[in-house]
Amino acid sequence: MQPSRRDFLLTGTCAVAGIYGLGTTAVQAAQPAQNAAPLELGLASYTFREFDRADCIAMAKRLKFKKMCFKSMHLEMDSTDEQCRQAAEECNKAGLDLYGCGVCYMNSDAEVINTFRYARAAGMRVIVGVPKHELLPLVEEKVKETGILVAIHNHGPGDRLYPAPDSVLEKVENLDKRIGVCMDVGHTVRLDIDPAQSIIECGERLLDIHLKDETEATEKGQTLVCGHGIIDFPAIIRALKRINYQGVISFEYEAEGKDPLPGLAESVGFIRGVIRTI
After folding, report:
1. Are 185 and 154 spatial neighbours (Cβ–Cβ below 8 Å)?
2. What tens digit of pLDDT does each residue of 174-186 get?
3. Is the dihedral of CA 113, 41, 26, 23 positive or negative?
4. Which end of the chain is more exposed for a tag (fewer CB within 10 A), N or C?
5. Is 129:102 a contact under the CB 8 Å cutoff?
């Protein structure tokens, strides 16, 4: 008798889990929510930091991304409102939704105000940012005024403000729920923290993700092609489905800055395969 599609998918899931040393029990224990939203992949444009905006957009289109998060080298923070709108239109013509910006550093009242102006002018819905702790009340005020989400990015070992996702959670727990976490999976792992468990702990406060693999779970970890390192991506995808994650999973491939396309393409193919299998 031919196996059903359900049987095929379950077998595939268990096979992937086996690769990562997970048993069937672990697979069954983290079933996704019944009405989980489809996971959306995007690109953090820092990946193409050595290229201009036109090339960045062209390569994102080539890899069939639909979502883009611009870093300042692709849209300067002092851009006029018209320049911001033009950048968004360039993305739109390429079939890309310029959903966000970042990482944006906010070290003064003026930088907070300008970042929201910039994002609003471009029609962005998410700011991936690092505001100083004392500026969080102003950030909350601007979130309420504009409706733009702020996902605070953790930077791992050596980051004095927000090294880990729970560093963000501690600071925002009493703030508007539209202020939350952009989990950098690589930096989280470099702290020897399980990102899948951290995703569960973040819950609805998880607003954005920067995805990458790492060579080791220490401060010395380096970015490499997804699937070539130590990160358990099936566990991450299961955790995202379990919390019914509503944001974008943006690839931030930091290796091979002058020639990132091959490694990024392999990473994207690998993650798309994991998502389809689980």
Report:
1. no
2. 999 999 999 999 9
3. negative
4. N
5. yes
